[in-house]
Amino acid sequence: MFPRLTCIIPLLDGRATRHIVTVVDERSVPATQAFDWPGVLLETGRNDVAEVEELTLAHHYLGMNVDERPITIEIKERGEYRTVTVDPGCGWFNPAGAGFALRIRDAGPHAYIRVALDPIRFERFVGTSEDGGAAIALRRSFEIGGRQVEHLLGALVAEAGDGSPTGLSFVDSLTTALGLQLVQQAGVAAPRPEQARGGLAPGVRRRVLELMDARADHNLSIDQLAQVAGLSPTHFARAFKQSVGRAPHQHLMSLRLERARRLLELPDAGLSDVAQRVGFADQAHFTRFFKRQFGVTPGAFVRGRKR
Q1: Phi/psi of residue 41, each to 5°?
Q2: 109-127 as b/e, with b when 16 or more CB fall inside 10 Å?
Q3: For helices 168-186 and 248-264, what crossing angle results, to 10°?
């Protein structure tokens, strides 16, 4: 459990002194947090804010109500407050640079997921133009939701809670998909449809695969791989799947597990040592992914080899 009211989402604007009224309740604590995802901050827990006065965030902000009851928010617009109800499974989105003030009616602990996205990285991941065109225009919305958003946030929360066992490329894929959902639901104008593209060029495909093979035990991100390919992350992920037949994070995971299988064939192979050498945070995560790939646990695989 994290210390009470330890919030990693950047609610305070460093350019001025702002006022945030907190909920005075011992249940108002973060439960899961992700600190080391590039350009992404994630937090789940029980609400710790009752009132906010005139904030301007440096990040795109998404707050999801994952409680069993609706939340009533009074949002200040044009000098007056209007009432908005955020139902369970829905959220509100505020783009970077758009100031706001709000009050939560009958404020008390309720379950939330908060996500903050760096706008520069967001634009790189979901931008619809390869030629440096205008940034995607986003608006404040209190109707963010749907099964796609629910599943994406659930996967991000699970990944954070488990210590990111699948790697940054998986987080990048989820974040890109979430960003595309935000563009659809909070975009001022619909994004331009992208022209269909083929897979990676042979030389690019070779360079990317060589890098992935050489650094399979590292936390390679989609952004890093896309830079090698000279493509945006969105286009790279699509082209890679067309060329290889599976997503980049799936290919990286397969490389790590195949390397682990070869190491386990060596005499006196230790499970925890192999897990660490191929880049897994702990043996439990390694066992789960190994069994999913090969149908047996690493321990059973070693015992079978010895027999």
Answers
A1: -120, 135
A2: bbbbbbbbbbbebbbbbbb
A3: 160
Between β-strands 49-55 and 19-22, what pairing exists: parallel, antiparallel or unpaired? antiparallel
Most confident of 16-20, 128-132, 196-200, 243-247: 243-247
Indicate the SS3 state at residue 153: helix
Put simply, whether the predicted model's pTM sits higher than 0.85 gets the answer: no
Rounded CA separation 255/257 (Å): 6
> What is the domain-level CATH number for residue 289?
1.10.10.60
Give 134-137's long-range contacts (Cβ < 8 A, gap of 24+). 136/183, 136/187, 136/191, 137/187, 137/188, 137/189
CA dist 155 and 160 (Å) reads 9
| Residue numbers of the domain that contains 287 | 251-306
CB-based contact 35:63 (threshold 8 Å): no
Cα 214 to chain centroid, rounded? 25
| Token duo for residue 133 | 């065109």
Confidence band, pLDDT 50/70/90 cuts, at residue 151: very high
Residue 93 belongs to some domain of the structure:
yes
Q: Are 200 and 209 in contact (CB under 8 A)?
A: no
